[in-house]
């Protein structure tokens, strides 16, 4: 079974309920996890539960999550697809500055290849980094996206995607090479990307919300709590189910370092929200 059903990323078929590996690294997304064995168990359990879409990056840790994925799951099943991202780097002060030069992007792609233990990356998202966490930034994506398109032509990348971008930047990138997914912040309380989500749905490009449960500040809402009671589920399960029902092109990558939370998240894919609950959640925006 594929939790939430399936969708395509280019010519790849993935489960709509995926898994985000970022939280497998240490505090502040820095260094190794406190319990490496537990992290490996979470990755293996995700695949056992039918997840075929794992989101990662070599700048998580840095290198930590990719090394864990390789240790836990390599050699990879043909059905499992790894989506990574480039465009930022980590500094000793745990910062996330942009890394968009030709040299930095090329090095990042090779880091991901090496640490994941693959010859070709399934999907690489170009992540645009903005000062003080402000996204998207009003810059051209042409130069960095052209670098990734060249690496794709060399056979190192199968498909390209984007992260932290506007509709205009998506249009610009698509004039250079096909875009198979867009990863922006979005959840039941943060609807700033409603327009972009609907525009992508119209052309069947998957939208992959990061922080689907609020990220470092988990979602809190009396309405969400009430809806959860009405359907006998947890608030976070309701938030995930709402996303899956929001649009057919939605692919989810909730992250956790806990097997119990992983199972709870996966179970949300089977939760059908009634119309009155959806209406109340829609009104949160």
Automatic annotation (TrEMBL):
It comes from the Bacteria. InterPro entries: AKR, Aldo-Keto_reductase, NAD(P)_OxRdtase_dom_sf, NADP_OxRdtase_dom. Residues 16-284 form the NADP-dependent oxidoreductase domain. This is Oxidoreductase. SUPFAM superfamilies: NAD(P)-linked oxidoreductase (SSF51430). It holds the Pfam family Aldo_ket_red. The keyword Oxidoreductase applies. Signal peptide: none annotated. Keywords: Oxidoreductase.
